[in-house]
């Protein structure tokens, strides 16, 4: 999904604010600042793979969209199971597929702002793109885009192809979703895909208020928030103000006339949010990220990434929200897995929810060491990247295997890539199920 040509490096080396570098202008502080940023980008490529760098964002600018990043194609790498073990059951939790923006305030805000100004040619072109975006999105807030349907179909198809033994014959599939339409449709799309691959599957779908605590507790009002959360959020807002700068530069490329700092911050933040959402509507065939410089995109992404990092409770009492939101989901996974192991003929449990349901669970389980103890807002990117964890259609799959002695092992996949748990593996990415159940939070 990455458009590697969206930000060719030579553009940043040769162009600043749409003006070709000259020998005299190169000495300006603004240009030197941008040049230093580029040098940092190149040098940061030498860092560890765990750290997200400016260069990584430049190479695939869509990643700056964070949780709007379209589902990446998995590598297909699969470690063979230990000898004698065969897969028989999968337990799944998935975020809905790519969607339109859940609210339209940001698109209305940027269009209203531009219509109230005298526009440059770039401003006129941008307004036309934004009005096209608004027209395509009209009446579809929060719904799946065509890309979302495609993502869910492909994930279900790969699941079936990668684990054919799980789905052989007359098996049961149980699927549950939150009451949000995009999640319900995601569930339906996956189930229809599987039914088309094996008509013998007995697939049962459910949408119940009683399941909301399991599937997405964030949508159930929570209590007893610690004071530290409010303190952290205040720090986060200050951090955002330091990152969401340079609004005057961007606005000057689109309009003529003066604007206040408040107008600049509000407009540019809203425009960046819309730019993130465009990529989930590929039929539009344009980008808005090219309105921002590489430095601005990096700063905006850092602010956005910090929000998700803090969402699960890194404020003084790590994982408090992760445990609160993830514990009931884990209990459900264990209970249903043990029932399948006991022989209830269920080969697959599907659950559909949201990023705010998946991320806390990954944190609570410390899958792939998704969260570290880093607490400085400007260092979050060294250990955590939202687009690597909760892109559109993000999912986790527990694939269960057994041998003739009825020993059970499990492999965990995050976005269909083999993942690690915070315990010793039996072999490669395979863990003893009884040991997995002992993981404490």
What does this structure look like?
The protein is α/β, with parallel strands linked by helices. The protein has a domain at 86-100 and 142-222 and 314-436: Phosphoglycerate mutase-like (Rossmann fold, 3-Layer(aba) Sandwich). The protein is 45% helix and 13% strand. It contains 17 helices and twelve strands. It has helices spanning 9-14, 29-44, 54-59, 105-115, 121-137, 146-162, 164-167, 181-197, 212-215, 227-243, 247-254, 261-278, 294-311, 320-341, 355-365, 386-389, 433-436; strands spanning 15-16, 19-20, 86-95, 118-119, 172-177, 202-207, 255-256, 346-353, 395-402, 408-414, 417-418, 430-432. The strands form three sheets. Strands 3, 5, 6, 8, 9, 10, 11 and 12 form an eight-stranded mixed β-sheet that branches. Strands 1-2 form a two-stranded antiparallel ribbon. A two-stranded antiparallel ribbon has the order 4-7. A hairpin with a 2-residue loop joins strand 10 (408-414) and strand 11. Helix 4 runs antiparallel to helix 5 (121-137) and helix 11 crosses helix 12. The chain is globular.
CATH superfamily of one domain: Phosphoglycerate mutase-like
Give the helix proportion (percent range): 40-55%
Which secondary-structure class do the elements indicate?
A: alpha/beta
Shape: globular
Brief write-up:
The chain is α/β, with parallel strands linked by helices and 441 residues long. The chain is 45% helix and 13% strand.
């Amino acid at each position: 999904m990455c458009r590697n040509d969206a930000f060719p490096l030579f553009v940043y080396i040769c162009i600043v604010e749409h003006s070709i570098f000259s020998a005299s202008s190169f000495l300006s502080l603004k240009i030197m600042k941008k040049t230093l940023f580029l040098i940092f980008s190149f040098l940061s490529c030498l860092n560890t793979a765990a750290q997200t760098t400016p260069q990584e964002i430049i190479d695939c600018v869509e990643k700056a969209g964070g949780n709007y990043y379209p589902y990446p194609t998995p590598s297909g790498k699969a470690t063979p199971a230990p000898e004698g073990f065969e897969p028989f059951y999968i337990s799944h939790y998935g975020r809905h597929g790519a969607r339109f923006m859940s609210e339209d305030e940001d698109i209305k805000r940027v269009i209203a702002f531009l219509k109230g100004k005298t526009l440059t040619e770039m401003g006129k072109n941008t307004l036309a793109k934004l009005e096209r975006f608004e027209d395509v999105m009209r009446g579809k807030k929060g719904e799946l885009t065509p890309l979302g349907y495609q993502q869910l179909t492909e994930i279900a198809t790969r699941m079936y192809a990668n684990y054919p033994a799980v789905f052989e014959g007359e098996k049961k599939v149980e699927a549950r979703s939150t009451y949000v339409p995009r999640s319900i449709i995601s569930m339906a799309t996956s189930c229809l895909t599987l039914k088309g691959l094996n008509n013998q599957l007995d697939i049962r779908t459910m949408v119940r208020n009683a399941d909301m605590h399991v599937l997405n507790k964030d949508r159930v009002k929570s209590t007893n928030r610690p004071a530290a959360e409010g303190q952290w959020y205040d720090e986060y807002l200050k951090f955002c103000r330091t990152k969401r700068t340079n609004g005057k530069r961007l606005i000057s490329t689109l309009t003529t006339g003066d604007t206040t700092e408040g107008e600049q911050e509000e407009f540019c933040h809203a425009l960046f949010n819309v730019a993130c959402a465009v990529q989930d509507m590929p039929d539009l065939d344009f980008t808005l990220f090219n309105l921002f410089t590489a430095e601005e995109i990096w700063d905006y992404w850092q602010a956005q990434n910090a929000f998700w990092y803090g969402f699960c409770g890194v404020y003084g009492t790590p994982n408090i929200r992760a445990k609160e939101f993830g514990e009931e989901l884990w209990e459900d996974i264990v209970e249903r897995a043990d029932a399948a192991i006991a022989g209830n003929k269920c080969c697959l449990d599907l659950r559909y929810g949201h990023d705010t349901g998946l991320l806390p669970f990954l944190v609570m389980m410390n899958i792939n060491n998704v969260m570290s103890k880093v607490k400085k807002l400007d260092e979050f990117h060294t250990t955590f990247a939202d687009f690597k964890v909760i892109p559109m259609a993000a999912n986790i799959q527990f694939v269960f295997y057994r041998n003739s002695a009825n020993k059970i092992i499990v492999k965990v996949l995050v976005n269909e890539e083999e993942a690690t748990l915070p315990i010793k593996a039996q072999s490669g990415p395979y863990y003893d199920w009884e040991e997995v159940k002992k993981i404490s939070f």
